[in-house]
Amino acid sequence: MTVRERMERIFAGERVDRVPFALKGWRIGPSATERRLRNEGLHILDARPVYSVASPNVSTQTHGYAQEGVWHQRTTLRTPRGELSQVTRQSGGTTWRVERLFKGPQDYAALRSMVADRRYAPAYEGYLQAEADMGEDAYFKTNAPGCPLHEVMYEMMGLEAFAVEWAERRDEVLALTEAIAANDRDALAITARSPARLVQCGGNYSPEVLGRERFVAHVVPHWEEAGALLHEGGKLLGCHLDADNRLWADLVHQSPLDWIEAFTPAPDTDMTLAEARQAWPGKVQFINFPSSVHLASAEVIAATTRQLLREAAPGDGLIIGITESVPEHRWRESYSTILATVNQYGRLPIDPDAC
Prior knowledge:
Helices cover 42% and strands 23% of the residues. It is of the alpha/beta class. It folds into 2 domains: 3-54 and 118-354, TIM Barrel; 56-103.
């Protein structure tokens, strides 16, 4: 069974021969170790976009500069309703926002104008070409917009500014989220007609800052609307849920989500894999191997892998994965150990007594 066949069948709800160990994207570069791991059964779940975004009435200017030896980039956006700017810096493969678009209440009009000007168009060729290039060696998903309130909180404002605005100008915040939601519907419609089968709609929802009330009012309706559109197009709806999930585990169960990306079991979050399997029956789980365990010995990594397999028995609908960054000095031993353990003990149906 090839990588693509196994992943396709898991997401379709079918039983396969064994639990795969998969990386989210190409998290390791070409090397002898990478080649060996793939030869031994390492899977790849990669992603490609299926739409392009243009803003015909918003001009963008960027300026790069070094500050204390770190490269920064200032981006200035000139919208029909005013100017916005943000500063980002690079650290490894991650982009950090140093200064956000929202500076104060005077920016609401420009933000709504920026959002309303987004124009989406189908861009299926790149996705199809990536599938053709990789053949049976990888499986692909695509990404679609997440909850609009989350975009406001994290991308536009930051948590401190959001807390102030939520308390003092909530109507403005909600008007901005509705503008985002209205614009995102075009992207979701294009995605529903795309060749992609697997769709991830946002994620990274943290209960400490989002809370259950906002989750119910904003995330759940987003899933319901996205799910209706995507399911009509034959797609599978997923979300990246890598934080504590106990607060809203029941809502995830009741949601139209077909699969969950990056659920990270204890000791890194507040739910074990056994609890997640019980809470979310029927939902495919592409979990993240607990990040803290990568720093442990090979013996502990192997024992943790066996424990995950025991908790997941009989193992249907499970992919043990890596969805976060792993320290450069640890991935070789850690990935080799996880893969060898999964290959030895992860045949379906899993016998928990044999792990």
